[in-house]
Amino acid sequence: MEHRRPVYWAGMKKGYDAHGTLPGSLEAAGGHPCRIRLIQYHQELVREQEVATVDELAGLQREELVTWIDLAGTPDQECLEALGRQFNLHPLALEDVVNPGQHSKIENYGKYLFIVLYLLDPLKAIRPVQVNIFLGADFVISICEEGEQAFHLLRKRIKEGQGLIRQQGSDFLAYCVCDAVVDHYFPILEQLGDQLTFLEKRTFAGASQEIVEEIHSLKMDLLVIGRLTMEAQEVLSEMMQGENSSLFGSSVAYYLRDVLDHTHQLSRSVDSYRQISDSTLNSHLSLKNHQMNEVIKVLTIITSIFIPLTFIVGVYGMNFQPEAGPLNMPEITWQYGYPFVWGVMLLVVFVMLIIFRRKGWL
Amino acid sequence: MEHRRPVYWAGMKKGYDAHGTLPGSLEAAGGHPCRIRLIQYHQELVREQEVATVDELAGLQREELVTWIDLAGTPDQECLEALGRQFNLHPLALEDVVNPGQHSKIENYGKYLFIVLYLLDPLKAIRPVQVNIFLGADFVISICEEGEQAFHLLRKRIKEGQGLIRQQGSDFLAYCVCDAVVDHYFPILEQLGDQLTFLEKRTFAGASQEIVEEIHSLKMDLLVIGRLTMEAQEVLSEMMQGENSSLFGSSVAYYLRDVLDHTHQLSRSVDSYRQISDSTLNSHLSLKNHQMNEVIKVLTIITSIFIPLTFIVGVYGMNFQPEAGPLNMPEITWQYGYPFVWGVMLLVVFVMLIIFRRKGWL
Amino acid sequence: MEHRRPVYWAGMKKGYDAHGTLPGSLEAAGGHPCRIRLIQYHQELVREQEVATVDELAGLQREELVTWIDLAGTPDQECLEALGRQFNLHPLALEDVVNPGQHSKIENYGKYLFIVLYLLDPLKAIRPVQVNIFLGADFVISICEEGEQAFHLLRKRIKEGQGLIRQQGSDFLAYCVCDAVVDHYFPILEQLGDQLTFLEKRTFAGASQEIVEEIHSLKMDLLVIGRLTMEAQEVLSEMMQGENSSLFGSSVAYYLRDVLDHTHQLSRSVDSYRQISDSTLNSHLSLKNHQMNEVIKVLTIITSIFIPLTFIVGVYGMNFQPEAGPLNMPEITWQYGYPFVWGVMLLVVFVMLIIFRRKGWL
Amino acid sequence: MEHRRPVYWAGMKKGYDAHGTLPGSLEAAGGHPCRIRLIQYHQELVREQEVATVDELAGLQREELVTWIDLAGTPDQECLEALGRQFNLHPLALEDVVNPGQHSKIENYGKYLFIVLYLLDPLKAIRPVQVNIFLGADFVISICEEGEQAFHLLRKRIKEGQGLIRQQGSDFLAYCVCDAVVDHYFPILEQLGDQLTFLEKRTFAGASQEIVEEIHSLKMDLLVIGRLTMEAQEVLSEMMQGENSSLFGSSVAYYLRDVLDHTHQLSRSVDSYRQISDSTLNSHLSLKNHQMNEVIKVLTIITSIFIPLTFIVGVYGMNFQPEAGPLNMPEITWQYGYPFVWGVMLLVVFVMLIIFRRKGWL
Amino acid sequence: MEHRRPVYWAGMKKGYDAHGTLPGSLEAAGGHPCRIRLIQYHQELVREQEVATVDELAGLQREELVTWIDLAGTPDQECLEALGRQFNLHPLALEDVVNPGQHSKIENYGKYLFIVLYLLDPLKAIRPVQVNIFLGADFVISICEEGEQAFHLLRKRIKEGQGLIRQQGSDFLAYCVCDAVVDHYFPILEQLGDQLTFLEKRTFAGASQEIVEEIHSLKMDLLVIGRLTMEAQEVLSEMMQGENSSLFGSSVAYYLRDVLDHTHQLSRSVDSYRQISDSTLNSHLSLKNHQMNEVIKVLTIITSIFIPLTFIVGVYGMNFQPEAGPLNMPEITWQYGYPFVWGVMLLVVFVMLIIFRRKGWL
Known about the structure:
Five copies of one chain form a homopentamer.
Chain A: H1 5-13, E1 34-42, E2 45-51, E3 66-73, H2 77-87, H3 91-98, E4 105-108, E5 113-120, E6 128-135, E7 139-144, H4 147-150, H5 152-160, H6 170-204, H7 210-239, H8 250-315, H9 337-358
Parallel strand pairs in A: 3-7
Antiparallel strand pairs in A: 1-2, 1-3, 4-5, 5-6, 6-7
């Protein structure tokens, strides 16, 4: 757990300007290597090329083609500034690209939409990776650290002309990117569901104390996913409303509704999982409590039986001298003293057992 | 419990596209055998026939008749595609038919409504089975794995002309299908209610630890039913609003309101049941705690009485030699030493009992 | 508790159609004897007569009079059908009369309102009894199993011309019926409040375990009343809105607002009571926990004092032979051996007591 | 606590009509002595006089003056009826004056507003006292059991012409009354805050069990205040909306907003206090649990050390006769038998201490 | 913790008028030294000067310049009154400046907006410090006890002409002040996040009881921050709506949305932190419970093994005289009596160990 949280929080930590920095400044840009792909297509044509710098993109945009600029990796400051100049992107939007760890959102900058969503890194489980999408009338720009892998199938679909994508415009492409992001959550949630079923089974099979930490960890993961899906849901429903919807053709609306539908499904599952994990934790605690009761019962039964017996044998271990008086432990000089004491002790045990059985302890 | 959950979750797991598959593709269609019934009627006429393939339906639709195409079972891909072609159904809707495990919903595709509801399989208790309903101006298509049994009475009612159904259009038929689905929940919820009453009784009669698992399991069932009824409620109230309502005649509106009313009743009962089961669980835990207190009290009383006695008899078991000095255990040479010790011990017991009674432990 | 719940739930159980019955059928009608009263009045005139069957009512309705048809008891099927024919009542509404156990509601059927509210049977405490009210332009029909007693004072008020009722129309009469139902809850809630105060007092006086069951039972009662008052509140606020309000004159609106106000008061009190009962339960549990701590403390103190002493006296009960060597228990041959051991033991007790006092256990 | 709750509840209990009484009847009016003050003013003039009966007020109202009729105490039925006649007040409003214990509210009766708020009696802490305010175009009527003290400063301010009040109309006067009521809550809440801080401190200093009752009592007080401030907030925000606002001049609106602001502040503080008291209670319980753990640890350590030792010394207290055979307790005839046993026992203690230290119990 | 709460509450305590004081009076003004800076700028010009009294500001305001009057410290009454006169500020707003401890808010006084936000004092952690902002068409007045340090960087940015600020009007300046306040929360929340991660780690490493107090304290801090960020969020979203938005140019709207976005991020993080701290506390309690179980298990095992053994050796410590009869403890005269007893005892231990292993206690 520990190796994951700090990353997420570290992400969040960077999500604000150092106190006093200029809003809209790009200083913090990381500068990890970043592949820039230019994909252009219409119904009958696909062109994909990789460029070294954003500047090479200038003049390549054509009206009759849908242009997808796919930045996979962490772009450096220069790159983003060039992109901003070329596509007229607002510095505040670019700042949000540089400082990941913000929440999902959609912002309408008039000529384009700026959409922020989150992937969960498949390798490191619950580490959110920001996906930035700019959707203009004839272009889509996507910037994502894990874009190489996340959009692999989408690129392939365009190249091979599968489905409707090549007949549609940039709005459909943006939908496809969002769809890829949302569908991404399902296998992760499924995995958490399996984990939960396993935790549940182990709980009722009498799990050890470690399960508490595992449930805590699962709940933390659900917290992250629940927040991300809820935000994605908000983003997608905002996408279909008001001024934002003007960028989407009516045929794409059905598809957007479908993704929105998926986010509903996700967030309801997260909600169910949360309730299941709470109920599982409570069941575990109750089970442990029950076990303690059993332990204490055993202690009580054994103590209650043997302590009186020990007392009785202690009595006859006293050294009173029978010679000093006839009332001084005459029992020890009786002929059947010893069997008599055993009789008394067996009677005590018997009575105790009956009492315990009546109380339902045995 | 275990045999149920995986089914539900498995259902849910399939409810998303494999990452990267084309939206609207029907690849996952199962292909279990599926009965296709064509039922056509107006006030004075009923025609029911079973067809082998969807293609045979072509040309059978007539304007003056209400057409119900009732697919009971899991239709294969071909069948769905044919249906899609013939009735102009949107691929996204058909995809939802193929991939069950989605949540209930209503979608307006202009010329028809697509409604998804859930039956709970009566045999396997809490296993949701998807019911897909397409409602057009003069046709209803219902697709349901358990349709054979679920709509048996409805088919009979049409054939025998009971009630209003034959005087009404396809909207009333769609209402009847929804009504059958919603009324389905009542006996199941009733059964859970009986279970709960039984759990409650056992709790206050001092149930064993297993009740915790049973309450957990009941809560999981309530979670599923609660979610389904809440969704059904949303679907039904959406049905009566905005553009959707145009497909329903004003006389059907009263009937829709009645079903909606039933869903309210259901979801309030689920809510009550949840609170009752929570309170029952808490009562159980408190009762167990109380029992532990009693056990510990018994332990304490017995220990507190016998440990001092054991100490006293231990004292007179010491081997100090009276001969070595007059202060060396003169008691054991007293004439009434032994009765004296018994007197002391009875006094100790008596004092202890008084103390415990004062503390309210006896 | 047990004698009450099943009734309520049984009521609920009947609240749905047997799966597959025709919507709007009246088959389940009970057929208990039912008094039918016809009360007609205007400012200067009152006429009350009891009729044997609904058919006798035909032709008795007059425009210038307010007509109240008051059915006290469970009407049989015939009776309801006759009523339906005569007043043109919708079969769905009549079905709701036959199948009690539904939730409170208001339904506008154009020419009349159908209102369902619940009385709580004063004899069997928390058993809901359905009150059905049909409000038309110049008539009110009330159907209630307990109507004999519930509306006794209202009938008297009409006959004696108390208050405004004779100057007003059928809308005011309907208000009076609702007012009688809502005011009915107050003494019951008051009784629960007294019960709660008593539970609270007993809790802090150190109640026994039974209080948990009593609080559970009280919470179940609050659940029922809370649900009923919340529903009554919804019904009353709907009554004052939209198309429903057209049946109410503006002078009646003030009075409706007053009843609505009473339901607010009720539901806030229920809410407070719930919080108080939760807090009381928690306090009880904490108190019991505290008592267990005390018991365990006593156990620990007595054990901690006497176990070391018992060990010491055990030491001198060993049978090592002083003759075998000078190191073999020379103490038992000392002149002051016995007093010396007592000294050691008193020291141990003293030290223990000091330690326990420092820990704050004494 | 006990001396307060009944009062509040008794108040609430009276807040409904005896079942079947006429709505709008004033029968329950108490009849405690009541001072009636007539205060009239405009910018340059103030007139205050006390009258014996409401009838004396007739004809004293003048258009150019603001008229405040201030009833301090519980008016009798006659008095209220006279007031109703003279100012044309609705019987339902007067009924609410007579039956205190209702919730706060605002009601628009066309020509005047009827406002109900609650003071908390400063002497008996959490006992709500109803304040009834009628606001007409040129008059304010206030009726309050504790009005003598509650509005003392307001009367003084009018007489001495402090602030804006003399330049403003009856709407500002009504605002001033509401402001006095709302500001009343602050010192009471402050006192609860102090109490809470004290409870918190004591909790972490290891408070005794009584703190549970005190926290329960505090939460009950917060429940009352929270309900009252929430209601006051609703009343004040309704005052500024819709038709009600027409009675308030635009310059008074700023002031109303300011009082509303105060109620926000109050209800947020109540909410914080509730969370703090919950967290404090949990901390207390956890602390007590921790203390029990410590006690049990001590018990276990002492028992675990001495029980084996007692066993060992018990062994050598057995009376096997060494003469009967060479294997019969030869140790007791050893020369160093006794020191040897002590050695064994010290070893046992040593091992036990090491084990406990490893487990972190010491 | 203790050194912080009183400050916050004390702040809150002063947030109401002493009961009966005139609304809008400034009597409580503190009078600590206060630096008054006048900063005026447009695109090409900056002028900063410090003045001794507010009166010196008269006549310095110029239309073509943005005027920022920055009061750092606690202004005295005179100063505020002068300010009120000069800028026509409403007495109610000035009263709120004097009595800090109110909640955040925005109030539209027609010609200017009055905004109240809160800084958290960086030195004393969670002590809220009120920031008062008046925004007029061409001026901004900021009054803040900690303004010296809080707006240091903003003043520098103006002076050095960094970013857009010099090209924009007073609305942008007000935005910058709000932005500085909101960004202020991030490092504090980050610190709490670190604390929480540390608490979490310690919990699962088996923390001591003190952690309960630390979590309680953290939750109290989250309560304060959560309330402040929620209020800031409300203030900022109100700023962008309705009549308030008219004071903000359209280019500033993007920036306001960005700050609003930051508050969303903050409040979601606070919410997550709350859930994490609750889950952590529960995990801690469960862990402690587990440890107690372990302790009790050790107690039970040791007791259960040694108590029967002690009984056995006690039996043979009895002093029955073998001479008195052949049944009187013949064992002690057996040749192998002693080894036989050891055999029995080892058997008991062995059986006990097997039982405990079967129960899973070892």
